[in-house]
From TrEMBL:
Domain of life from the UniProt record: Bacteria
Name the UniProt record assigns to this protein: Sulfurtransferase
SUPFAM superfamilies cross-referenced by the UniProt entry: Rhodanese/Cell cycle control phosphatase
InterPro entries xref list: Rhodanese-like_dom, Rhodanese-like_dom_sf, TST/MPST-like
Alphabetized Pfam families for the sequence: Rhodanese
Gene Ontology molecular function: transferase activity
Rhodanese domain mapped to chain residues: 17-137, 166-273
Length: 276
C-alpha cells in the first residue's frame, strides 16, 4: 500500500501531469442523503466525480447496520462506472478531514478492493483552497467517464463480522465521541454505550487544529496498541478514519467491523457497557 495521504500542492501538480489521478468527491452529511450531490453541484475540485455515501459506498440499512457494505458485485459496478482501474491512481476528498465518506472510500478501495494507489487529500477542500486551488461551479454530477473492466479481488480478511467481534479477544477501538462511547449521549442509535472491553479513540483525535492528519510519529504514540485490533464506530464510516490513521502511522491495520454499534445493538442479548 502506498502512502495514504496526498497534500494539496502535490495533488495540484499531479492533476497537471501526464497521468492525473481519478479524483473522487466524497463529501456527505449524515442524515442528509442529498447533501453530497448538492455540495458537488455548488462547487467541486476540477475533474472530480461525485461519489455518494449511501448510494455508492453502502447498501441499504438493515440487519447489517446503518451503512453495511454493498455486495462486491454492486461495488464493482460502481468502480467500473467511475472508470477506475488499478493502473490509475485515485484521490478521495471531503470537507471534514476525511472523517466521513472519504475515509470510507479509501478503505473500500485500498483495503477491501485492493487498489494499489489510493490517497486521501490531507486537509480536504479547505487545504485545496489554501494552496491556491480553484473550485468549479458547473458540471453534471451524474456524468461518468468511459467505464472500466476492473474486476477487484476483494479482501475479506480486512473485515470482521459481528459473531467474530463477540468471540475474539482482539482490542476493539471505537471511533465515536467519548460522550457516545460512555453512553452519556446517543444522537443516532436507539441504544447508548459501547462494546464491552473496547477503548475509545475518537476519529477527530487523528487531526490537528488545522484539519490535517497529525504527524506519523504522533499518531504512532497515541493510537491504541495490541496484538490484534478491530476498528468500529456507529456504522462503519468514521472507523475507517482510524484505520487510515494506523496506515499514516505505519502501524498494522485494524480489521473493520462494518456493522459497528448499529449492528451490535440489534440483538438485545449482546452485552453493552457504559462509562469509561
Amino acid at each position: 500500500m502506498n502512502e495514504p495521504l496526498i497534500s494539496a500542492a502535490t495533488l495540484a501538480d499531479a492533476l497537471e501531469g501526464p497521468h492525473p489521478p481519478r479524483l473522487l468527491d466524497c463529501r456527505a452529511r449524515l442524515g442528509e442523503p442529498d447533501a453530497g450531490r448538492r455540495l458537488w453541484v455548488e462547487a467541486h475540485l476540477p475533474g472530480s466525480l461525485h461519489v455518494d455515501l449511501d448510494r455508492d459506498l453502502a447498501a441499504a440499512p438493515g440487519a447489517g447496520g446503518r451503512h453495511p457494505l454493498p455486495a462486491p458485485e454492486a461495488f464493482t459496478a460502481v468502480l467500473q462506472g467511475l472508470g477506475i482501474t488499478p493502473q490509475q491512481p485515485v484521490v478521495v476528498y471531503d470537507d471534514m478531514g476525511g472523517q466521513l465518506a472519504a475515509a470510507r472510500a479509501w478503505w473500500m478501495l485500498a483495503c477491501w478492493a485492493g487498489h494499489p494507489d489510493v490517497r486521501l487529500l490531507d486537509g480536504g477542500v479547505k487545504a485545496w483552497l489554501a494552496a491556491g486551488g480553484e473550485l468549479l461551479e458547473d458540471g453534471d454530477p451524474d456524468a461518468a467517464p468511459a467505464p472500466s473492466g476492473w474486476q477487484p479481488a476483494y479482501r475479506d480478511a480486512a473485515l470482521v463480522g459481528v459473531d467474530e467481534v463477540a468471540a475474539e479477544e482482539a482490542l476493539k477501538v471505537d471511533a465515536r465521541s467519548r460522550e457516545r462511547f460512555r453512553g452519556e449521549a446517543e444522537p443516532v442509535d436507539p441504544v447508548a454505550g459501547h462494546i464491552p472491553g473496547a477503548v475509545c479513540r475518537p476519529s477527530a483525535d487523528n487531526l490537528d487544529a488545522s484539519g490535517h492528519f497529525k504527524r506519523a510519529d504522533a499518531l504512532a504514540r497515541e493510537l491504541p496498541e495490541a496484538d490484534a485490533l478491530i476498528a468500529y464506530c456507529g456504522s462503519g464510516v468514521t472507523a475507517c478514519h482510524n484505520v487510515l490513521a494506523y496506515a499514516v502511522a505505519g502501524r498494522a491495520l485494524p480489521r473493520l467491523f462494518v456493522g459497528s454499534w448499529s449492528e451490535w445493538i440489534r440483538d438485545p442479548a449482546r452485552p453493552i457497557a457504559t462509562g469509561d
